[in-house]
């Protein structure tokens, strides 16, 4: 009898210690938006990065957009050990809209990569349906919601691109991905300190330069001019450089 109790106790201890470690590991990737800006920009703790790109079947982002995203990162963050992308699909979850809670639940159920040793991990989800906050006059194309997580509403991006008088799908995808990642890098004034005052008082966390990637309208792609992806303005770049970026 004693033996059985001992065995049960041991199993319990092993189980609790495993699940505790697991939660500790995952908690580093479940912090607030902007909390990992310095770790992503600098090489102080992490010299490489893995981006887990997960899309609902049929809603794969274009290869051009992912390539653009990686070159955007390479030009701004210090990761001499490299930036790798792991892409895969998940079956259709069957949602007609997504609340933030549903987006978080999908990440928690499917995410494989968490910060590990000197490698920092990022989660990007490409959804097959619209945000539950969309209205007839305003739609959400993407949201950065945790320190290393963002969602792109790929179905909505596709609807607003690729036609006459519309930006190309790859340009709109790239703009929204890079804009959301700008928030994860702490722009503007939310995790990365501003060197000069350039936060838009009417649109918090956004830059007041209308041509900047971090201008609020970049989130909807409505400042895409001449079919090109908006770039960061010199003030946003200076902020990133002062926080460990390049
Ligand atoms: Zn934004
Ligand atoms: Zn800016």
TrEMBL record:
Domain of life, source organism: Bacteria
Signal sequence annotation: 1-19
Claim: Signal is one of the keywords in the record: yes
Gene Ontology process terms (BP): proteolysis
Keyword Heme set for record: no
MF terms in GO: metallopeptidase activity
SUPFAM superfamilies for this protein: Metalloproteases ('zincins'), catalytic domain
The entry's keywords: Hydrolase, Metalloprotease, Protease, Signal
Protein name: Membrane metalloprotease
């Amino acid at each position: 009898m004693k033996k059985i109790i001992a065995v049960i106790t041991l199993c319990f201890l092993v189980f609790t210690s495993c699940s505790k470690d697991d939660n500790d590991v995952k908690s580093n990737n479940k912090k607030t938006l902007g909390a990992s800006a310095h770790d992503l920009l600098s090489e102080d703790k992490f010299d490489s990065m893995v981006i887990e790109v997960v899309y609902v079947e049929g809603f794969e982002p274009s290869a051009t957009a992912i390539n653009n995203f990686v070159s955007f990162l390479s030009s701004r963050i210090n990761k001499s050990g490299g930036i790798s992308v792991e892409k895969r699909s998940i079956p259709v979850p069957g949602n007609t809209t997504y609340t933030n809670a549903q987006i978080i639940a999908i990440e928690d159920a499917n995410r494989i990569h968490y910060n590990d040793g000197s490698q920092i991990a990022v989660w990007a989800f490409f959804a097959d349906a619209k945000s539950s906050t969309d209205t007839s006059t305003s739609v959400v194309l993407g949201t950065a919601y945790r320190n290393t997580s963002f969602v792109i509403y790929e179905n909505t991006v596709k609807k607003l691109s690729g036609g006459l008088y519309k930006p190309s799908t790859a340009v709109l995808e790239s703009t929204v991905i890079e804009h959301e990642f700008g928030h994860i890098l702490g722009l503007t004034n939310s995790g990365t300190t501003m060197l000069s005052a350039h936060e838009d008082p009417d649109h918090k966390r956004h830059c007041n330069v209308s041509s900047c990637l971090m201008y609020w309208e970049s989130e909807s792609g409505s400042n895409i001019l001449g079919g090109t992806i908006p770039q960061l303005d010199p003030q946003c770049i200076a902020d990133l450089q002062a926080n460990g970026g390049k």
